[in-house]
Amino acid sequence: MHILVLSPRQLWPTNSGAKLREFHLAKALGRAGKLTLLHFLEPGEPAPSPSDLPFCDRVIAIPRPPLYTPIKLLQGVVGRWPLPVVNYYCPRMAAALRQLLSEQTFDIVHFESMNMVGYLPILESLSPASSRMLDWHNIDSELMERHAESNPFGPRKLYAQLTARRTYSLETRMLASLDGHIVCSERERVTLRKRSPNARIAVINNGVDVTSFQTARAAAANESLIFVGQMSYQPNIEGALYFVRSVWPAVRKRFPSLRLRIVGANPAPAVRALASEPNVEVTGTVPDVRPYYADALAAIVPLLTGAGTRLKILEAMAANVPVISTPIGAEGLEVEDGKQILLASTPDEWLASLAELYGHAERTAELTRSARSLVEQRYDWQVIGAMLSEHYRDWVAHPTPPVLA
Fold this sequence. Notes:
- The chain is an alpha/beta fold.
- It has 2 domains: about 1-205 and about 380-395, Glycogen Phosphorylase B (Rossmann fold, 3-Layer(aba) Sandwich), CATH 3.40.50.2000; about 210-380, Glycogen Phosphorylase B (Rossmann fold), CATH 3.40.50.
- The chain is about 45% helix and about 15% strand.
- The chain has a 7-stranded parallel sheet with strand order 3-2-1-4-5-6-7, sandwiched between helices. Strands 10-9-8-11-12-13 form a 6-stranded parallel sheet, with helices on both faces.
- Helix 1 (about 15-30) packs across helix 15 (about 380-395) and helix 6 packs antiparallel against helix 7 (about 155-175).
- It is globular.
- The protein starts with a strand and ends in an 8-residue tail after the last helix.
């Protein structure tokens, strides 16, 4: 098969959850056929080299346009597309796609997230026979609704509410018109199937390279809590602020030797400022997150908003590190509270979960064994990639979606 991947971001370096997902799915597609990647090059990042993406037959990079400009904010209200799509539309990318489609025919065009569907009219005009697949990193309308709920009443809240409604409408149209959809969790599949019963939707979980985390954790680890993620991502910013302001003072009082390490690229100013708090470290970008798991009592995921599934949880589980998360943070993963993960919604619950682990090696080992077994069986990228290729081969071979009762 000849496959084209359209992405709003570069796949390398894999320093965010979205990049990790796209990298490993593209790797699987590269094994299934000849892969062309057309993506935006992010400001300040070097372009990936061929050795970074050896599974690609061809890579075309276009500089990413500025996001959230005043004209784009206006277009997101009065134009054809909602803001998540407007942000990633630019003439240079459109021209590159037209040129590419004039040179080559593709069996599959794989859109990485709703951000790229603004280029769908070009595809429909120049390559109508291509099977069109959409990777839903999140249900974006759901993400915007939660963002609106977390904001006090004002212009930001109103804009988020409007964007959520416009995005919901676009999502519903895409469900009915595209040839196939992949989502990160069964919960998302059920949610979208209610909107469009005949849409062809497969669950392709987020995953982890299980083998690479096998030796990450030391035999005894009680020194730190670790929060891993892209720290310019608003849900991660909100989660870090919530934990340090609302939970950390009580944790420090109960467990004075613990440190909190906030590990992730591009920390926002509000996150960097948290380093002034007692025993809090904000690392910024690190070359390898695995050493930070070595002395961790637990990985924390204190998210209050957001959607999708968290690769940071799967990485910690693969590294034999216990995970404590809010219910929203663990959403979409097939985990059981108390068996593979500990869930906490209030400061008291966070303290209780930490007390369950601190100094209790047997309980820690019980939790991490179960979590590691889960990721080996269900969330290894090799397993997930084979499943994606199988779905795509079947959908291309049988282009008419079945009519479901």
